[in-house]
Structure formats: C-alpha cells, structure tokens
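REQUEST FORM: STRUCTURE PREDICTION
Request ID: SP-0412
Submitted by: Lab K.M.
Chain count: 1
Length (residues): 197
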Amino acid sequence: MVDLGNPGELGRFQEFTKEYNAKHPNVDVELIPIPSDTYEQKILTQLSGGTAPDVFYSGDGTIVKLIENQTIAELTPFMKGTDSKIKDTDFFQGLWGAAKKNENIYGVPVDCNPVILWYNKKLLQDAGVSVMPADLYEKGEWNWNAFKGMLEKLRANGKHGFVLDNSWNRYYGFVSANGGRCTTIKASSLPTKIRRP
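STATUS: Completed
RESULT:
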C-alpha cells in the first residue's frame, strides 16, 4: 500500500497496517510512504513497469487516465459480491467523482474534503434576504436557484456575492454537487490552441 499523506495521516496508516497484519497473519501488507512532490510520477512509472503496489492513492486527474488506458481494475464486481465488506451504497454518491465511470467503480473514496459555504447573515439581511441558507437547507429548499437569488440580491446591494478559490477541484465539486458536468468532451477533440500540453 502506498501513501502520500501528511505526518498525522501517515501515522494512522502505519497503525492500520500494523493492526491489519496482526489480524491477517497469512498476509503481509507493507506501507511505503512517497513524498507528495514525486508521488504521481513514481506511481505512473511503477504502473508502466508492472511493479506498482496493489493499493495506492489516486487523485481525480490521475484516475481518469488510469481508467481510460485500462491500467486499473474495475472494482464493481468485487463490491457487488456477497462476501464484500463494503458496498457502493455505503458511500455518499457524490464522493465517487472520477473513480466512477458509466456506473462502474474503479476506486474507493478514502476521505472527503468538503467545500463549505460561509456566509455573513448581516450582509444577506441588509440585501433583503429573509431566510438564511442553513434554514433553506433544513427545509429541503436550498438549491441553485435559491443561491443564485441571494447572489443577485447581494450584487444589487453593491456587494460581490460569492468567491470561489481558483482551483479546478473547487469548480468540479461545485458543479457536480449541483447536478452539472464540467465537460464530456475529450481533450483530443478540442482545437489545438485550447488544449493543455
């Protein structure tokens, strides 16, 4: 098993590995920490050379490549087996991200770093918003239209309503959480001048 985590996370994985090996004497799992700045390149090299570990971390960008070139195994049949310890229904469906393609699962979520909406009640009230986002959520009425309506009221009141950190994964999470998709177009079909190298 390979890990790229921080020292606290690494300590938990070392503990888990030790406990797992103690409970399963017929199996010997080895934890191999790899620094995050060389992690992806090392895993890709190992996969190409046939020396990759059985279990490893993969981010959304990497797993898409691994699914596309059929480097990793589909896990769906294993998870649907009667002796499986986990089922896909054990996870919030939004967590699968790029690890799920056409209802087929290729990776299991390890953790979740949610994007949280912080808001200023006074600014919203000053802009004429009478029901706060948390209250709308509790009533099952928090949706894109409610959010957009609040932003319009804020802008009409001279404020900038929403700031999202400039990172692809922030946008991806925000779009997919609201039922959208970033793209279904393969990069090779895009005009050359807008493709990424």
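NOTES: Residues 4 and 55 are 12 Å apart (CA to CA).
Reviewed by: T.R.
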